[in-house]
Amino acid sequence: MTRLGPKQLALLRTVGTSSALVVASATSRRLCALGLMRAHGTDGSFAAITPAGLRALADAVEAGRVEMFQMPEREARDA
Predict the structure, then answer these.
(1) Residue 76, pLDDT above cutoff 80
(2) Measured distance CA(79)–CA(16) in Å, rounded
(3) I need a surface site. Which of 17, 55, 61, 71 has the fewest CB within 10 A?
(4) 30: which DSSP letter?
């Protein structure tokens, strides 16, 4: 299995549900070339994660390389 970079893992995590990336990017094109995402548009648009992408994401989560969810930081309020 190809070792994925932080941007690739972040993108897989983001679209790891029923979401799709509307506008193609260099990262999504590379993930499509690896078979981890599949573009539904002819120009590389509407890319969604594949079963292989989900497996790569799960492997990265289990290895501690990426968190599935990160709680947004809250701004401190003046008291």
Answers:
(1) no
(2) 39
(3) 71
(4) H
| Pairing label, strands 47-49, 37-39 | antiparallel
Residue 62 · residue 14 · CB < 8 Å: no
What number is the average pLDDT over the span 26-39?
92
Say which residue the tokens 């029923």 belong to. Answer: 18
- The closest of 10, 77, 3 to 49, measured between CA atoms, is 10
Give the three-state DSSP class for 32: helix
